[in-house]
Amino acid sequence: MTINDLAKKSGYSVATVSRVLNDSPNVSAKDKAEINRLVEMYDFQINVNARPFTALFAIADVMGIGAMRALHDNGMRVPKDVSVMGFDGWRWVLIWCRSFPQ
Predict the structure, then answer these.
(1) What's the rounded Cα separation, in Å, for the pair 88 and 86?
(2) How far apart are CA 63 and CA 74, in angstroms?
(3) Is 20 exposed, middle or buried, given 0-12, 13-18 or 19+ CB atoms closer than 10 A?
(4) pLDDT digits 0-9 by tens, 66-88
């Protein structure tokens, strides 16, 4: 069973199911209880072998910089582990990325 299957059976979106599985505080107690009930009923297990993402596309360069910082803070290397691409051609990104730890 996948997260998509769990979402279909629960009637909730994949995003809501994901929030519950990741213990996000942004889900109502009622929704958490219902999704967790289905997780137990179907013996849903998170696939630890799921393939990690290797690229990220940001709609603005400044968002890409924020993503690079978050990736770096979580032990991932840009661009070796994850490629990051911004979209708007912000000029200051050239200066910022030269000083970004690789």
Answers:
(1) 6
(2) 17
(3) buried
(4) 888 888 887 888 888 889 888 77
